[in-house]
Specification:
Helix content: 40-55%
Number of helices: 8
Strand content: 15-25%
Number of strands: 6
Largest sheet: 6 strands, mixed
Oligomer: single chain
Order of helices and strands: EHEHEHHHHEHHEE
Length: 216
């Protein structure tokens, strides 16, 4: 069996004009994960990311200098576009500035999207499901034995939910649990794929890293 390790990107720049870049803490989180994998002796023979800057910066700060393969199916859904559709272009300020309001609204919005709402958004829920499935097929159509993917919370939640055959809303529950640089791991072969680890942070276990655990 081959391994597929899917890592959620490190902390991005929440609350700034450009979310799609790592914060200073995000770079440090990535370095800790990279050092952990090196010490473990887990060396990937294929590198894949989405096309987002925060994903590619995570891989680079983990210490991987080779250019990864990319697949946009590993990108996050465009929450800002979904919000714009939901609120007709006038998104309430607390949604973007207050974490509690932000994540409550995130859950409500994605559940509405999954149910077929938010017509006119740039991407339908069905389109999102399809591109994540396509990305998974891309990453596992390989002779590599250890595939490392850097992705985002929503896409990872969908990978796990789909693999479990769970109802659509379960994806959102998984999404909201996702921690930055967390590891989700599958084993795969021509016969199928199985989940063996979800949202783990073994590299953050020492007490000295306790204050580095983040969710956004």
């Amino acid at each position: 069996m081959a391994e597929l390790m899917v890592v959620r990107h490190a902390q991005a720049s929440f609350g700034t004009d450009n979310y799609d870049k790592l914060s200073e803490l995000g770079h440090r989180q990535s370095a800790v994960l990279g050092a952990y994998l090196k010490d473990l002796g887990w060396v990937p023979d294929r590198l894949v990311t989405g096309t987002l800057v925060r994903q590619q910066e995570t891989l680079a700060s983990m210490g991987f200098t080779d250019a990864p393969e990319t697949h946009a199916g590993f990108n996050e859904y465009d929450f800002y576009n979904l919000l714009s559709v939901r609120f007709s272009g006038d998104v309430p300020a607390p949604v973007m500035g207050d974490r509690k309001t932000h994540f409550r609204t995130l859950r409500e919005t994605i559940l509405e999207w999954q149910a077929g709402g938010l017509a006119g958004s740039d991407e339908s829920w069905t389109d999102f499901e399809t591109r994540v499935a396509d990305a998974l097929a891309f990453a596992t159509d390989t002779k590599a034995r250890r595939v490392l993917v850097i992705s985002s919370g929503g896409a990872i939640g969908q990978l796990v939910s789909s693999n479990m055959g769970a109802p659509k809303p379960q994806m959102m529950e998984l999404n909201l649990q996702m921690r930055n640089t967390s590891i989700t791991r599958f084993v795969f072969s021509s016969r199928g794929m199985g989940l063996v680890e979800f949202n783990s942070l073994p590299h953050m276990t020492p007490d000295k890293y306790a204050d580095m655990v983040t969710y956004s």
